[in-house]
Protein 1
Amino acid sequence: MRAYVLRRLLTIIPVLLGASFLVFASVRMVPGDPADVIAGDAATPEVKARIRREMGLDRPLIPQYVTFLGKAVQGDLGTSARTGDSVARELAAKLPNTLKLTVIALTLAAAFGVFAGVISAVRPNSVFDHASMVFALLGVSIPVFWLGFLLMLLFSIQLPKLFGTGPWLPPTGSGSWQHLIMPSLTLAAFSMAIIARMTRSSMLEVLRRDFIRTAWSKGLGERVVIYRHALRNALLPVITVMGLQVGSLLGGAVLTETVFAFPGIGRLLVENGILQRDYPVIQGTMLFITTAFVVVNLIVDVLYAVLDPRIRYS
Amino acid sequence: MLRSTLARRLRPLLACGIVLALLAGCAGGGGGGSKDVVVAGGTITVSMDVHKVSDSPSFTVLEHINETLYVMDEQGNVKPLLAAELMQSSADGMTHTIKLREGIKFTDGEPFNAAAVKVNLERILNNDLQWKSLISLVTDIETPDEYTVVLKTSAPFAPLQFHLTHGGVAMISPKAIAQGDEYLASNTVGTGPFKQKEYQKDELVVLERNDDYWGTKAKLNTVTFKAIKDDGPRIVDIESGNADIAVRIPATEKARLENNPDIDVEVTETLRILYVYFNVNNPPFNDKRVRQAINYAVDKEAIVNSLLGGAGRPQDAPMTPAVFGYSAQTPYEYNPDKARDLLRQAGVAEGTKLTLHHPTGRYPQDAQVAEAIAAQLKEVGLDVELKTEEWANYLEVTNKPANENVVQMAMLGWSTPTMDADYALYNLFHSTQHPPTGFTRGFYANPEVDRLLDLGRTTVDINARKQHYADAIELIWDDAAWLFLHGISELTAVKKGLTGYVLHPSERILLHGADKR
């Protein structure tokens, strides 16, 4: 087991190296001069030259990359050209917010998704099954920004108006747990739906297997058959999906954070990084998201091994 | 059996949900206490370093903290602020004496004096900071006594006093400056009616009243500026009572918000104009008749009324009326027949293909305005293809040097925060400002205009200066250097009960004298 984990850990290094180069090269391939955007309308050529110099853009590409990598390894992701602040500090300031959002959303998605999927599979074609699959279909189809906006209208304007109170939930911003409710529900909807559908189909398949029939015929209780025998075997594909969902949650966080003006790394990446062509911010944030994604995938692989002993030896 | 298990499992969950909803119900947002104001902006300040920011949302925040030597009121009059009186310029226009108010302190206790002014101006000049261009002719800063600053310029420099009203040359405490750029990126100390309390980069800034302010003290306890980029959530914020002011309301929401009994919608004529420039290097736009024809072919009144809900003013000069040097011209009235005539005279064939580059989401309804222009040009026989670009890319495409520049027509906006014609015209029409150096992106060049703009820069006599600009504007207008569109008005939603705020034409919100019922 330990060898397996070690082997998987080692494969991370080339993946991250490759990813860092791709990120570094691709931001430079996108048209748009950072100095133009950052300096603003009336900037003189000297001001733009200063910005390019400060960003190191006056040097050839490879030395730029080597410097970036050398510093990144030591945890220094560079300085934002636009604000003059260190990227690592900007990330550190926003990361807890995105983490909170993602963890809550993933927990909600996993709990409700697996729960709904299991019940639907055990009672196929029941009212609950149909209802939860309709919700799952909606969850997959509704765009994040639209759902977020509807929740906002409902809980911050319409319901309070109906009952003559102040806003039930703050529509934007951060700082209290109330600020997390609408964004995390919005973010969870898609993953919840995917997980519910995946669990349902996986469970339906497992429940038809011989060993389940054997378990029933041994006279085991429903709970033991469903949760210990069937669910454990059905979870493998579900966990794969959850692992992938972490990626889409981080991606979905960009939209959710924008709708709720929530201060996370998604908005840092898009609004401050990409739209402003602030290379250090894009590089730092992308590198971080990639690392997170790779690590989560590693954890998922290890979980497979825990759930299914056959995998360790392959 | 499973069903009963299910019911048992569900019960606590349901209970949790109800409790959550009840608790949340008590989470009334509200704009805080009675003397606390929340402003929902599209963005907040980019940095706390006033010498390095370039956009009006940044100045909106920082001008409550960092004050300038002179200030411009909403009518465009220059008044002394940290200076004690208006600037005295020598007869040759090259020596400028500034007397400072005495006894003012920065909020960290540092005295405000001539030495502090020198530290600030030198920081901008020596480090190529953002607004160096405003004072770039200054060669020497002398401090003959504690409250006198003498600026020497390399040439007569008439707009200097206007330029010193700009937030980009506002005063930061020398002690804060000594702590270095990284410190200043998130901390600032000024002499203003408010001081920095909390700063979460790109999210919010909280200012609190400076109780030791040298002038009339502010009435509000705190002012919070929040960044909400999307229009929808920003409007929800003020409708739900979470914010007191919401900026940049889309024209499409104006009527609905005006029906809300708790909200006023204010229309402010800004200093920003929208225009389409022609690349005059290449045919067909090297022919003045074609440029004039396009001005006749586009109905600016209709664009303002139908696309902007009236929140704009068709242009009658390449600047707004609030700018010093403004001189109204006879607008090119909507006249498609005349346009067709002129095109025929210029030998432009029916169905000629042209491209129009435009940004999207940068100016109010920019993409829709571009579509309207294309549709109206089709009426006079021009087949216009629209090229929509994201902002960063747009700046690069339009800024290519002449031999690489493929743009034929492109939409841009320009704001004149100094409220002076030099800033409005020199950057946009002087032939030294062609890409990639400056902002005369259509390569417009008229030696007589150049001469008049140079004169405007160096003439000290106000009336003579005004005349130079009037002459230049007349030439520019007749040359039809642009398709002149409209001056942009801002729509701002303000909660009823808030008084004394100033919606400045430079797109800044000033709460120095604001009060809240």
Protein 2
Amino acid sequence: MRALRGFLSGLRGLARRKQHETDLDEELRAFFETSVGAKIAAGMRPDEAARAARLELGSPAAVKDYVRDVGWESRLERVWQDVRYAVRLLARQPGFSVMAVLTLALTIGANTAIFSIADAVLFRPLPYADPDRLFVVRMLEPATGRRTSGVPYDYIRVLEELHPDVITVGLRGPTFMMAHTANDAAEWVETFSVTADYFQSLGVRPHRGRLFDGADGESGRVVVISHEAWQRRFGGDESILGRTAKIGPSDRDIVGVLPPGFLFPSMSQRHLYSLTGRPDFITAAPPPVSGGGVPGLTTVIFGNTAVDPIVRLRPGATRAEAQQRLDALAAGVKVEHGLAGTAVPVFDEPRALLFPTGGPVMLLLLGAAGVVLIIGCANLARMLIARKRQREHELGVRIALGATRLRIVRAELIEGSVLAVAGAVSAVAATTLGFEALSRQVPQAAYGVAAIGVDGRVAAFSLMLGLLAAVLFAALPAWRSAGLDVQPLLRRPRGRHDRSIQGQALTSMQVAMAIVLVCGAGLALRELIGVLRVPLGFDPQGVVTLTVNPMTRDPHELKAFYVRAVEALAARPDVQSAGASRALPLVLPGANEHVQDETGQSSAAVVHILPGFFETAGMRLMRGRWLTRDDLVADAGAAVISESAAMVLFPDREALGATFTSSSQRPFHVVGVTADVQMSLERHTPPPVYVMPSTDARGMTLLARVRAPVGAALMDIRREVSALAPGSPVTARWWSDTIAASTPYRSPRFQALVLGGFAGLALGLTALGIFGTVAFLVASRRREMGLRMALGATPASLVRLVVRQAFAPIVIGVILGVAGVYWLKRVAQAQLAGLDTRDPLTLAAAVIIVIAAAVIAAYFPARHASRVDPALVLRAE
Amino acid sequence: MAPSDKSTGVVRGTLDMLILKVLALEPMHGYGVGTRLAQITNGVFQVNAGSLFPALARLERDGLIAGEWHATENNRRAKYYTLSRRGRATLKAQTEEWRSQVDAIARVLRLNRGEA
């Protein structure tokens, strides 16, 4: 209460500072005049009375000062004074200030940029109610450690009915492209279908209207739209709830709008063409049923495999206990169905699903950005110390005039803070401006569908970081001035310098950190080169890929359409060859399927293709022949299998002529074996077997190898296909572009880019620091250099002398840096399983690069020393 | 910081209480408070302006006294301070506290050898 009153009156005081000042003046005048009046009344002469009264009052300025000191706002005012003083000082030395702000803007900017991504990936709470009790269920293959999305029906039933800790289970189908018709124009849109319990499990509340209930799934008449779709497609129409949307063939009532920023806990599939994982329309699915094939092996909603079930645990339940109970229940299911050795259901955090690989990498990058900041702070600390040496006399005067130590230290910290705030503001501004370019580099699949961007949190983080930096770089000089003694400050001639051990320690630290960063960048670069060097087994250059979904559900019509499209493309003069496939190497790996030969079961990806695919993709035939148009017409089950599939299916005999059956019991015979292609860069990719579709020709991608890969060809080909499928949107892209944009390429490129940038920045700052230190030393030893020259030292020997002396801290830094790399390797290896850190070559290269930068940085000021004219220097003294 | 109370002769920490007491008798301006204190104490407590005005400002901030501008007897404008209800309560509490402390100190000082 009292504190609040003090705070409020302080605010009033601040608001009415002028008024208070004049009031105080008048009060003091009244005091003086009354005092004079009283003294005259007591018989004093007017001039004597005035003199006595003045003595009594003392200095009005001092009295006012004391009164101003009452209350907290006075301290604020003095801080404000210090801020203005600092700004004036900095404005007087624009060179120093610009350098300092630039250093801060770059180093804080590095952190801001990374944090703008990392915040969403690592820290920001997920937009669900009580996200701690929310888990995704996935299937863990015990042998490989791989996690997959589809959970068998029997496990779902167990979770819903028997598991004591689970309150609700929500199911979602995979992304499904459906035609949305508005104003007589159809457009393919991403849709999800979810069960009634899905949004309830997430604890999400509708922005408008309602979400699904049990009856919606049966009726199939309603749809919920995303906030983005509401804004973009319906112009934020307030009466949206009465409207309908034509999804597929039927009109559906819009019953609700999802809140802004809602995020489906799902793996982003942006690398699969243009899927975003943020569907515009969400339909209601009826309760799940058991999928076909092996009984209970899949869960199906709305004809699609349900993926990533989401469960909410009861309050107080822990994940470990819930997992134990699930294990016990799952064991029962396994016994019942004879599923021993197959995958088991596990609870996963939604964050792990949303950002599958991004988390540890983001931590690493944040750490690297922090190191860059520390290197920058070391430079600033050195600059401040150097500058204060020039101001020692002024400091001495201030202390002698009664400035307290506290006040001086505070002034210096405030000066640092002024710089830091300016740096942080520039950093946020620069990141905001450059964010588009940055986010284009962010691999979506690794960092998910999170809303990344520069927001209030990022700005606050930058400002905090700036102030932390100010404490880091201003504390050392300020601490030095706290222990200053007045006398020597005033007496010592200006411009005399001593070599400080702190400056050398800063250099060592910078060198060590630069080595760590350069080494990290080198490792990232090598990983990137490694990925780029992987032999593909096919040639994506000059191949256009086209996706088109003609609006027909009839499988025969669909197949006929694709065949017609391939023929039309192949007939074009600018097209060398054309084909179609359901899986595309490095873009769409084929789905795993159980394939059976005469002896047993194996896993392979059954890929449906149309004739011309192999030639168009540029694959190599090892034995036998390719599939042809005759095979398609005959529909006799001819298959071409990859070498690795041959190894898996027929390890001990010739594959050519052998037979196998797919999971849908269709028999095939092998007519050709092709060299392996890189289907995906992830491990555990099933080996592909290529067959012709009998009836099922859904989801084909058309391919056309053009004679001259120019932009016009892409547009012409796209038009050709559009003409074949009027009213259906067609996506055409260069295969190589899609691959370059995919996560396995973008992730290492992103890391190499960011770490490379950081390493460059660190190297530059360190070199600048060394340059500054050596230049400073040389300048302060001009006289000594002149003397040495006069006594017969050669310029070359002087350069050697200076460089050698500058080198001691650098060598210490190198040793510390190498030790740091070895220590970090152990930490990083535990964090990043895929990272190969046993790479002495990279470390050696990093050491050489940093030493080279240090030598260059030290050489130039050293050469300056050798140009001293001894006569001039000695005369000047 | 305000100057020490040493020169004024006022026991440390009691100036606020004394001002409250003087104002409890009648509303007064700053000069009046100073002279009244000197009068009452026969010149033992000489409160200078450097101590008096910060103390008044502090009491006003804390809402123990309220200042209002009035004409003086010589027809000048001066700020007259009045004790507020909270000020009166604070004065009562501080006076009791002071009395009990003085009593306690007096008892200690009266203590003779052998007494407990």
